[in-house]
């Protein structure tokens, strides 16, 4: 029986961008659940490691098996409150105490890279989902950040926004592999961004 889970936000990728409370929780956990890259980077040799493969039924079984006797840390990229496994965990284990340790979202770091505020921005996602028409509507001065995926890339988002009425001259910035040594950023107009095909796991920031 699952009694408690700790969900740890690990930030955009590099351990330098992870808060000390998250580092401490990972270091003291008996078992660590997360993506393979996160496990390779952050888990110790002595800890049990459970990769998240997308088979959530198998993950549920593993969590039930481990957490009855062990302290389990579930690692999620960015901040747990923003499009992470946290929602699934709450639905799957409604009677379980869940502790959440926040992390820096890649969107926050992207705005920092651009020296832009984000309290006046809308955060949306094309990562495995599609915002509705009203969410994509153009307003002068509007600022929006998007997560992408391999099918709905930065270039795809630029084309969708222009079809939704955004001016082709609107400013777009695309950032990928945020916080890693090979981090990449490109800025231009929506019309130009529609021709940048390889920003597939990125943050896209658009300003009308």
How are the elements arranged and paired?
Blueprint: E1 4-9, H1 20-28, E2 31-34, H2 36-42, E3 48-51, H3 56-67, E4 72-76, H4 86-92, E5 97-101, H5 106-113, E6 122-125, H6 133-136, E7 143-147, H7 154-163, E8 171-176, E9 184-189, H8 190-193, E10 202-207
Parallel strand pairs: 1-4, 1-5, 2-3, 2-4, 6-7
Antiparallel strand pairs: 7-10, 8-9, 8-10
Q: How large, in whole angstroms, is the Cα Rg?
A: 19 Å
| Uncertain runs | none
CATH fold-level assignment of the largest domain = Methyltransferase, Cobalt-precorrin-4 Transmethylase, Domain 2
User: What is the CATH superfamily label of the largest domain?
Assistant: Tetrapyrrole methylase, C-terminal domain
The secondary structure category is: alpha/beta
Biggest beta sheet attributes: 5 strands, parallel
**N→C terminal distance:** 51 Å
Q: Which range does the strand content fall in?
A: 15-25%
**Count of separate DSSP helical elements:** 8
Shape: elongated
Task: Give me the strand/helix succession.
Answer: EHEHEHEHEHEHEHEEHE
| Total domain modules | 2
CATH architecture of the largest domain: 2-Layer Sandwich
Instruction: Give the rounded overall mean pLDDT.
Output: 93
CATH class descriptor of the largest domain:
Alpha Beta
In total, how many beta strands?
Answer: 10
Helical fraction equals 25-40%
Strand order of the largest sheet: 3-2-4-1-5
